[in-house]
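Supplementary Methods. Inverse-folding protocol.

Structures were first reduced to a discrete structure-token string of length 226. This string, shown here, constituted the complete conditioning input.
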């Protein structure tokens, strides 16, 4: 699905929907950016199992790994802004030394035999906690240049100029609707019921991904997002 870029300020103003009860001269910028950031991350995290492809990016690693671990060499992932929530984590590891990189569980990696005939030109790896653990076959002298492809979290919103990347259409409309409810209550002291509109948007969202959801499941999603 194509991605669109917005600024935090344009999303905030769209959420206000020209409500005359909201005095635009009395907006509290810092707190609003925090609210938008929280809603955006919650939305993307909840549907990361569907939209992860749109957020795929990559990072290149040099061979400066921690060694001596019982689980093999390790890449520290703690500084990477990666989607770590959702039903499944989608990672792709590539190497300039071999096309044979085998993902596995940490337990499998611990018992993996680098000198076995079928493993000599392979790199075995496992993701666990904040690390990717690896071991290379005895036929490889180096891991080579490693490229990790992973779904990246949206940039943290710190000002009105912060860019927001969202899949076109329903995801953007859903975020704006969430914020409309929040900002109307925050600035106009009015409660608005957006549950029907939200349910319609989410139903369309799932349809776009060819997924059938029951009414009860849609209601649960609406409750989680509002």
């Amino acid at each position: 699905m194509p991605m669109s870029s917005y600024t935090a300020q344009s999303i905030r103003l769209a959420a206000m929907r020209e409500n005359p009860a909201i005095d635009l001269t009395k907006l509290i910028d810092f707190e609003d950016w925090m609210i938008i950031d929280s809603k955006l991350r919650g939305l993307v995290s909840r549907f990361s199992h569907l939209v992860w492809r749109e957020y795929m990016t990559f990072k290149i690693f040099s061979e400066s790994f921690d060694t001596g671990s019982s689980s093999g060499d390790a890449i520290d992932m703690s500084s990477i802004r990666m989607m770590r929530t959702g039903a499944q984590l989608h990672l792709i590891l590539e190497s300039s030394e071999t096309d044979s990189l085998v993902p596995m569980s940490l337990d499998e990696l611990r018992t993996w035999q680098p000198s076995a005939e079928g493993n000599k030109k392979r790199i075995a790896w496992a993701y666990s906690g904040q690390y990717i653990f690896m071991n290379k076959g005895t036929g490889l002298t180096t891991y080579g240049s490693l490229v990790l492809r992973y779904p990246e979290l949206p940039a943290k919103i710190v000002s009105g100029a912060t860019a927001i990347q969202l899949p076109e259409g329903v995801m953007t409309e859903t975020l704006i609707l969430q914020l409309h409810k929040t900002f109307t209550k925050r600035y106009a002291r009015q409660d608005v019921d957006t549950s029907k509109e939200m349910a319609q948007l989410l139903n369309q969202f799932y349809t776009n991904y060819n997924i059938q959801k029951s009414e009860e499941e849609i209601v649960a999603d609406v409750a989680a997002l509002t």
